[in-house]
Amino acid sequence: MPRLLGNAPRDARSLLLAIAASAIALGAPGGQAVAAAARAAFLPHQALYELSLVKSRGSASINSARGRILYNFSGSACDGYTSEFRQVSELESGEDKVTLSDLRSTSWEDGAGKSYRFKIDTRMNDTDSSPIDGVAERTGDHITVKLKQPAAKTFTLDGSTVFPTEQIRHIIAAARDGKSVLELMVYDGSDNGEKVYNTLAVIGQPIPGDRTIASPDPSTQNDVMKSLTRWPVTVSYYDHDAKAKEVLDYNDFVVSGAMGKFDVKDSKPCK
Length: 271
Description:
The chain is mainly beta and 271 residues long. Helix content is 11%, strand content 45%. It contains three helices and 14 strands. The two termini are 29 Å apart.
């Protein structure tokens, strides 16, 4: 799953999938939560985010930032889940220097979280694209990744690593189980296609569907969504192989993505 203004927004997608899940094992007790969540259905949807600059700091200051993210999610447990993602963003720094980035990503993950296919393409201004293309398969106690691009390569990952949609299942199960923190190792094919991320999900208190909130987002205006219980979730990502001294964040700017539109799409239940 791509990152914001790097290889695209990992956090935006995680939060979106968490709030867009339907039929999430209502009333499932503790140990049955993950199993029940695995039988539940995700809600196919399309969301549009508007990007804007929140703050700029450091010597390489950013004067302005704007852009959009379009995200589509569809599929089912029997057919697998497809994600389509595009982020176009424009950064303006000193001396009217403008950087335009265009990231496109598509992925497919089977309903059991055992197979994952991904293609990511990034362009910066007029430079050539930087494609990433590969497939990951879970077998026994490990995952085998086969990259076609940026270079042909095969390697293995620890079997406890999860793919993006499976990550959301675990977050939902933890939320229904009353947990506030969840740590997972996640592989999504982003960056150079070889990185695994340690993730920390912080889960807030549930918001019942019948509660009126002060600042509704577009999803809560949707008849399908507004009656569902939901949780505020923040997911942080850290390079699994980074040394301790490399973990601190000294980024020069912060960009916010506000959901401007949310549409539920037709779903096809498993036969």
